[in-house]
Amino acid sequence: MRYRFVWAGFAALVLAEIGYPLVDGAARARLTVVTVLLGYAISVTHAAVSRGWRAVAALVLVAGAGGLAVEALGVATGFPFGAYTYADALGLKLLGVPLVIPLAWTWMAWPAWLVAGRLVTGPARVALAGLALAAWDLFLDPQMVAEGYWTWRDPQPALPGVPDIPVSNYLGWLVVAVVVMALIAMVPDTRRPGPDAPMHALYLWTYASGGLAHAVFLHLPASAAWGGLGMGCVAVPLAVVLVRGGALLRRGALLGAFLRRAPLLRRGQVEGRPPQEEGRIPA
């Protein structure tokens, strides 16, 4: 019952992202803000119902407040991403940063942490979760820069085909994302296993929809390739593990049914009658 709200929010987010290429101008900017708010609500709600309020506090403080602090530092000094400025299209700002930006950090930090935990454990989880979060920016930054939501003062050197964003941005994201994940990992409740299917679905949807939107609807083929490569390092192994896990669960269910049936089979053989007659009263 508790997870119905998470799934309902995910469905609403999917509809919002499907609508993104269908609008433009101010409507697209408003839809971007709505999408971030939905993503933030989904992740925070899932953290609350699956891990408790200590996990929520860690997520909001580290990814949200920490993300705002790093973004404010970046806008003011150019460190650690490079020199950039935000336009006014994304709404209210604090310290030069639109308030939706740290909400976006929070939105994707939680599924990145959980999908990494589905694949690896220990210190490797922190590194993989950092990569899972940072790789999202290979889709996000080209899309937002193309809309004019922020601009880079000196975007060179850049990735081939994505000339308006410096490589330093992606490297800075990776370093900061790993630090964020290391801090989240310090809270024991965030390391507990839980029912994380909604967050797995969110990450896989972000990967698949980002690649499709950039390649087909937004006319950003280079970022479609770079984002597909970067997020694919996590999303593809996750999909494989989930598919194999589902097959193993089905096989386990069949094996369990067979084992429960086995005593009846043996008893029927001993008594010399088919097992389906077990329990009948002889005429």
What is the element layout, followed by pairings?
Blueprint: H1 4-19, H2 25-51, H3 53-77, E1 84-86, E2 93-94, E3 97-98, H4 100-119, H5 123-146, E4 150-152, E5 158-159, E6 162-166, H6 167-185, H7 197-217, H8 221-271
Antiparallel strand pairs: 1-4, 2-3, 5-6
Helix pairs in contact: 1-2, 1-7, 2-3, 2-4, 3-4, 3-6, 4-5, 4-7, 4-8, 5-6, 5-7, 5-8, 7-8
Question: Key terms for this structure?
Answer:
single chain; 283 residues; mainly alpha; 2 domains; two-stranded antiparallel ribbon; 6 strands; disordered C terminus
Structure summary:
Helix content is 72%, strand content 6%.
Describe what this molecule looks like in 3D.
The chain is mainly alpha-helical and 283 residues long. The chain has two domains: 4-246, no CATH class; 247-275. 72% of the residues lie in helices and 6% in strands. It is built from eight helices and six strands; from the N terminus they run H-H-H-E-E-E-H-H-E-E-E-H-H-H. The chain has helices at 4-19, 25-51, 53-77, 100-119, 123-146, 167-185, 197-217, 221-271, and strands at residues 84-86, 93-94, 97-98, 150-152, 158-159, 162-166. Strands 1-4 form a two-stranded antiparallel sheet. It has a two-stranded antiparallel sheet with strand order 2-3. The longest helix is centred in the last third of the chain and has 51 residues, at 221-271.
**Helix run count:** 8
Distance between the amino and carboxyl termini: 50 Å
**Largest sheet, if any?**
2 strands, antiparallel
- The topology string of helices and strands comes to HHHEEEHHEEEHHH
